[in-house]
Structures are given as C-alpha cells and as structure tokens.
Design a protein that fits this description.
This protein is of the alpha/beta class. The protein is built from six helices and six strands.
Length: 188
C-alpha cells in the first residue's frame, strides 16, 4: 500500500516590499514540485490575512491560517536574516498557532548576507523546540544571496543547491511520515 503524500507547508517569512524571498521561494518550490511524495501548501505571510495583534477572539482569517498549519505534516520556513535575526512578522505568525505545530518536522531555507541567514535559522530552532517541533539538521542557505542567482532567478550553482534541497526534503519526508504515524497512534 502506498503511503499518502506528505502535506508540506512552505512558509515564506518575509513581508518586505521588493523582497528577495520570491526568487528563493520560486526556486525551492520548483524542487518540491519535482517530487511525487510531497503535496505543497505555500503559506506566504505577505498574502495571509493575519491580525496585527495577538487577538483574544479567533477571526475567520486566523482560523483559516491555523487550519493550514494544522493540516500540514511538515514545514519548510524560507527566511531572510535581518539584523542577525528573522523577521518579526514570522515570529508573530509562529506565535499565533501552538498545538497546530506540535510533533511535526521543520526545515529551513535561508538567505542573507555573509551569514546566509544561518543566525536566523538558529533562533528559529529555539522557538520551534518550545513548540515541540523537530527541526532537521540540514538546511539550504544562500550566502550573499543576490549574487547566488542569475538574472532569470536561477541558482548559479544549481547542482549543489538542488542536491542540498533534496537532502532537506528527504529528511522532512522521513520525519514527517514517522511523526504523522505517531500522532495517529496518539489520537487512536
């Protein structure tokens, strides 16, 4: 019997106008769509209607967002590094959910200057650990990101980054299946 596709939520964490996240996300989503074991839901924080404050009452748009987080089996967070950290709207979006994140794996695709977003990823690992999210070790990072893509938005070293994306996705599928089965046993 074939196992159902893993439901992967790809969270695009930048909300800046003119953001570079679109270039990175387009490339990564191309890698995801090559696989037949993954079903993707793009959760673009620039397009999701989230409240600007943490509300007491859950609105319909917030409930829709929480449902998308709950339905996902695994996550990839695409994040820039701003001032040695990740964007505030990403933290807010993470904090709006709680149980919806629990017992699921997350991986990271980061970009930035010399650090390639890795400082943002290390901070996100701490936040996700508190939410009982398993973060996978291997990441994809783009150091000096604007120089890593050509004028068409293709990575200059496609073989290396495509291979890194495959490793990341393989780990997420493994952890996603294992944790999906564990959550099903717990619910039974």
């Amino acid at each position: 019997m074939t196992e159902p596709a893993l439901r992967l939520g790809v969270v695009i964490g930048s909300t800046r106008e003119g953001r570079f996240a679109d270039v990175v996300a387009r490339w990564f989503l191309g890698q995801v769509r090559r696989r037949d074991d993954v079903e993707v839901d793009v959760i673009d924080l620039a397009a999701v209607d989230l409240p600007t404050v943490h509300p007491r009452e859950r609105t319909a748009p917030l409930l829709a967002y929480l449902d998308r987080i709950a339905r996902a089996d695994a996550f990839v967070v695409i994040t820039p590094e701003y001032n040695h950290g990740y964007p505030g709207p990403l933290k807010h979006a993470i904090d709006l959910a709680y149980e919806e994140w629990r017992a699921k794996p997350a991986g990271f695709v980061s970009y930035g200057g010399l650090g390639g977003g890795l400082r943002a990823v290390e901070q996100l690992r701490q936040v996700f650990a508190e939410l009982h999210v398993v973060t996978v070790r291997d990441t994809v990072s783009f150091h000096l990101a604007h120089q890593q893509f050509d004028e068409r938005g293709e990575p200059r070293d496609a073989a290396a980054v495509n291979a890194a994306a495959a490793v990341l996705l393989d780990q997420l599928v493994w952890w996603g299946r294992a944790l999906r089965a564990a959550r099903a046993l717990e619910a039974a």
